[in-house]
Specification:
The complex is a heterodimer of chains A (114) and B (975). Chain A is elongated. Chain A has one domain: Orthogonal Bundle (Helix Hairpins), CATH 1.10.287. Chain A is mostly helical and 114 residues long. With 975 residues, chain B is mainly alpha-helical. A two-stranded antiparallel ribbon of chain B has the order 1-2. In chain B, strands 3-4 form a two-stranded antiparallel sheet. The longest helix of chain B is centred in the first third of the chain and has 32 residues. The radius of gyration of chain B is 44 Å and the shape is elongated. The two termini of chain B are 77 Å apart. The chains are: A mainly alpha (114), B mainly alpha (975). Chain A: It is found in: Cell membrane.
Chain lengths: 114, 975
Amino acid sequence: MEIIYSLAIGVLAGSGIWLLLRPRTFQVIMGLTLVSYAVNLFIFGMGRLSVGAPPIIESGTVVDVSSYADPVPQALVLTAIVIGFATTALYLVVLLALRGLSNTDHVDGTEYNS
Amino acid sequence: MPLVLIVVLPFLGSILAAILPHNARNQESWLAGIIAIVCAGLVIYTAPAVFNGEVLVQNISWLPSMGVNMTFRMDGFAWLFALLVTIMGALVVLYARYYMDPADPVPRFFSFFLAFMGSMLGVVLSGNVIQLVIFWELTSLSSFMLIAYWHHRQDARRGARMALTITAAGGFCLLAGMLMIGHIVGSYELSEILASGNMIRNHPWYIPILVLIALGGLTKSAQFPFHFWLPNAMAAPTPVSAYLHSATMVKAGVFILARFWPVLASTDQWFWIIGGAGMCSLLIGAFAATFQQDMKGVLAYSTISHLGLITLLLGLNSELALIAAIFHMINHATFKASLFMATGIVDHETGTRDMGVLSGLRKAMPITATLAIVAAAAMAGVPLLNGFLSKEMFFSETLFVDQTSYSSYLLPSLAVLASSFSVAYSLRFITQVFFGKPATDLPRKPHDPPHWMLFPSAVLVLLCILIGIFPEQIIGSILRVSATAILGDHLPAYSLAIWHGFNLPLIMSILALIGGISLLYVLKPLFRSYPGQTPVLYHFDGRKSFDAVMNGIDNIAYILLEWFSSKRLQPQVLWIVLITLVVGVLPLLDGNWLYLKQPFSFDPAFALLWIVGGACAIGAAYLAKYNRFRALALSGGAGLITCVTFAWLSAPDLALTQLVVETVTVVLILLGLRWLPRRVIEESQVTPLQAFIRRFRDLAIAICSGLGLSALVYIMLTREKPEGLSAFFLEKALPEGGGNNVVNVILVDFRGFDTYGEISVLGIVAITVYALLRRFRPPQESIHALENRHEIQTIDGNGLTNEHSLPKGILLAPNVLGRLMLPVITLISLYFLLRGHNLPGGGFVGGLIFATGIILQYMLSGIHWVETRSRVRPQYWISIGLLIAGGSSMLAWWVGQPFLSAISWDIYLPVIGKLHLSSVILFDIGVYALVVGATTFMLVALAHQSLRFYRKTPVAEVETNAEASTQLNFSDRVN
């Protein structure tokens, strides 16, 4: 589980970073999305992986802390997902504005010769 | 105490001088002259104490905790220099009064002149080395302003810039050296530093300190290899050259070398560096001076040469040489300033300084000629003048250098050679200008200037003669007290007598005189055929090298900027990624991370899941360039796999949120896809090799980053989890937070403030998106490409008018289903909102679900149809959401609790029974409302771009009439 999880994060991050370094705005937005998945999984994974133990407490039972997943990284990641969506939207709109202003989809706004 | 006064008065005078009117030559001169004389008087007032052997110190505390104090210290040597600066200042002021043209802006001149005088006095009277460097830099600055006085002239500007660059760079090195010395000695006070000579000489830092201080002194005194700024500084007015570039500023360099002589000298390195620089300057200066055409050029190179002589004497590591150096400092000041003044008079009266043009001025300006002849004779070293005495001391010192046999012959021979050139150029100076047939083609008719203009020059020449004939009486005690200040009480035996007997130095002087006269005859043809060109040396034009160095620095700066501070995005992102990679690799470097600490579990289904996920990610990366839609779909796939992972690994809230966000993101990006240009494989301007290298580099970085991140995650996952906050939240969520869903309780109760910030961010982003899209103008290509879309839509969906409530064609079934689904979707979203506290759900998920429902309607039925019927005004939902959330947080103030505390009520209703209400649900409702508003706002603003496009094109003229009735409705909605 741990191996697969780490490799999964690695693949997502690698693809994302490759795309981040590209010169087209659409590639960058895709890259940002993939990197944000990788980072969300990373933060979530810091609470260590546990299967079948969601942090929903049964009423009336004594709480045994070790039998639940770690709720703190989950709260962090939830916030991160929502704000990530907002910034993706913002980036997309900036991309469109740049496209309209400069007639090209290059990240620098002009097609370079080098 | 007068010391502070001596330094401060000129600065005050400088400010006063700046205020006086434009053409107040007399007032300015009186002001400057009086200040100079007063300062001189103050210096003389302290004479009895100084001559007694006292060192006067005046201390003003400034930053006692950092050891930074203003200390003024006057010992014999400083006294000598202060006297020199002030008296010379007074004389030059008198001279300048007559030299300056009535049209010249005089306030600027005298203001900077006085500022310079104050800074120079500060340099000599400073008792704290940091303070000394500050005044040093002030002298550079005021000299810069004085050289560039006639700033309309290009040579003045260039010369000033060159002087400032070189002397300021030297000042910087000097500061570094002083800091190092202060660090070794433990204090910046000059008295303590002067007592720590051995400590510094034996310290491992000795050579860097020596080099730095040497750089400071040599740049200021225009010594080899930094000598080329001085001839270029001759573009200054002659009073400036007389004061700064002969008597005071260039002497600051040798002053500092003499000052630090007890600290840094007596080593081999000192001998080679200082002595070597001095020797080279002596020779080069004398050689070049012989060939100059400009009178001031001769004097400039001659100054370089004489200062080289002084530097060489300082570098000889001998106490007698030091005394000779101080003696020559005094003598050089007198005759050089006098010669500069004579040059200025000639220039003023005849209009030219060119020695090829001038001739025979003896008849027209007899007094000037006499003064100049005497001063030049002093410069050449003619007996009975002061120059002769110091030259004699110089010769005798070179004979006593105890080095290997070859240098014991080399040094005196070079000294004689330099002196012959000195005689040659002095003779040439006089014979060219004052002797021969009177010139007929001069710009102005020459005559002797007003008496007061000659007065300063006369005073100085008189001094030359007096010191030459009665050295012991005039200058003996001053010299003794200065030397004592540096060397201590045990001075070596020397005598200032005129005649020491017929010894080797005398023979050397005679040889130099004869050699100089013969040189002049030998070189005469060269003067005629190549006027103004120094043989051999003219290849090494200082100014050209300086300009080349400056250009080189500019180019390097440009390249560095291109690399590190590029305006382009990709280099910046590359640097971010690279540095993060390097930082991230650091924990991996010790290598012992491969072993496991927790039991190893493997689930094949999970592996399969992520094989698909990994393939999606890589596919998206590969396709993003030419196949945007497919890439988007694949990245959506990766997102869904992430969602399943969250669900698998016990994070139901995350899975829900990720699912809905994924959906909305895909819709969002789809809305934007249409505006991007077609991606065709085109000829690129980059060579294939360059492109390949760049791609390979990026691929390598990406793979390394991915692997590194994997390794980091693996390390973390296989280690023991440290104690954190989770226990607190898990235990307190139900009893104190009142909810079973711990994640939700954390979000809206324990960490409610963070959530409040988060929804504010969402609101801000939504408004920003809207604002950015108001100004959006579609690019040219997209308008043309989408023109025929218009016809298609009138058939299917978006051409819905008010008469047709349902479209015809393929969108009929989805429309019916979608409209039926809307209430169900709303119900589900409310259900998730309300159950969030105890089961997976919450305000975010609920809000996103509702927003999805609304967007579904937009997608199916079109903007017109929805907006004529919808009451959801997203911008109001955003504000209402924030207000509700804020209000519920402030509710706690009613019961005296702090902001964002949760208060709960238990209500007993007749049928339903006990209801446990909490203000937290209000907060969650606020979140819900805001998420709905923000999401809808963003996507609808994007969707409206298609309408905006319609209104612009002429094709849609017909349509706009039909849309006119609907325009009012949506124009007050979103636009």
